[in-house]
Amino acid sequence: MPKIMHPHPTPTPLPLPHPLPLTRAGLSGFPSPAQDYEGRTLDLNERLVKRPAATFFMTVTGDSMGPLGIHEGDILVVDRSIDPRPGHILVAMLDGELTVKRYERIGQRPYLCSGNPRYTPIPIADLECQVWGVVRSVIHEFPV
């Protein structure tokens, strides 16, 4: 079950150095040390939070969304202002339990689906389901 991280007031801008326009994942040599001083910055709040008044954060528990890149301990950036469409990953209250699932239509019926095939799709037509928001981003930290 996801843990709720309560909505916060509009974040204070925090631009951090972002010197390179693009970094390749492969080995391509080293950038020029002068590029470190180009003055570019990146504010993750500006990049990830499109509508601050409608955005909240949650921490994920469980393994149902792992194959979709959402893992235990990840932080979700959730936007309440987006209308859910099939394919969106939603945070929803389903029969009194908070869950994170992908919204799909199978045939003409709506379902909440896990990324993990061990969990069967949940038909939501006959259940009490309240959508809290659409997941816009996932913040995944690597262990160091």
UniProtKB/TrEMBL annotation:
SUPFAM superfamilies: LexA/Signal peptidase. Residues 29-135 form the Peptidase S24/S26A/S26B/S26C domain. Keywords: Autocatalytic cleavage, DNA damage, DNA repair, Hydrolase, SOS response. The keyword Hydrolase applies. Belongs to the peptidase S24 family. The keyword DNA-binding does not apply. This is LexA family protein. It comes from Halomonas salifodinae. It holds the Pfam family Peptidase_S24. Residues 1-34 are annotated as: Disordered. InterPro entries: LexA-like, LexA/Signal_pep-like_sf, LexA_repressor, Peptidase_S24_LexA, Peptidase_S24_S26A/B/C. Residues 8-20 have a biased composition (Pro residues).
